[in-house]
Amino acid sequence: MSKSPMIVAFGEMLIDFVPDVAGVSLADSYAFIKAPGGAPANVACAIAKLGGSAAFIGKVGDDEFGHMLANLLKKNGVNSDGICFDKDARTALAFVTLKTDGQREFMFYRNPSADMLLKESELKLDLIKQAKIFHYGSISLISEPCKSAHLAAMKAAKQAGVLLSYDPNVRLPLWPSPDAARDGIKSIWNQADFVKVSDDEVEFLTKGDPQKDDVVMSLWNDNFKLLIVTDGPNGCRYYTKKFKGKVKGFQVKTVDTTGAGDSFVGSFLLAVANDPNIFDDEKKLQEALLFSNACGAISTTQKGAIPALPDKAQAEKLIKEGK
Questions:
Q1: 3-class SS of residue 198
Q2: Boundaries of each Carbohydrate kinase PfkB domain copy (predicted)?
Q3: What are the residues whose beta carbons fall under 8 Å from the beta carbon of 224, sequence distance 6 or more?
């Protein structure tokens, strides 16, 4: 079988410290489990786990955690040629509190962390130009020099005819203010070919009811091939120039929602890379989104993002059981 087209994920990779018991505040947590994370890195691992071809571009500290993360990507089959190590800054850390329903809150240690210090001159542009899809979030837009590197990477991808995929992944504690987050996230909004947002993010970006179509459509741009809104356990909604609809989700026993969106995105990007006509074929799109919903659901059934990522057989099994 020929290797599937490459997907490059750009941005942050960090360590999440997740409490061993859910429903306890950070102050009251007794022990923490070390879980590798960072949305773009999770997406790259999700793609590789499903048998796709993925690369990651970003920066970590030249420290134990940074090398652990780089090795973990390699172990998961992700191309790590685009990773840089910073001698002076540490790998970012996040302490995550898990509520009893698996939802979470974050406390970040990055002042500044290595991922924020990626420079344009450190970008592996040849890697980006070879990609079928270039995927990114918004955390890399928060501070310089990483912001300039992010914009340069997008520009290089666009000029090379690479599809641009954007999942803003709103993390309010990292931005100076909610308005700064809205402005920063929307500053590159119209350049993407497809965007995935959660229902909560729709509410944050529009200040409207995320269940209403007209509210969602206020985020639409004619450059888009597709806009996806994820609704947690209720599945997702899709909007293209020609059609719109929804695809059901899966009910599972949720332990930790960290990485569910990344698992969904990785699965969907792989479908797009393998069949770019998916945007014009509603049946194919629905099938790919159902599979992505299954991947997202499975990833919530154990702690940590990367260890919980499913393979193809697990997702197919859940879909079969759901019928």
A1: strand
A2: 6-311
A3: 192, 193, 194, 195, 240, 241
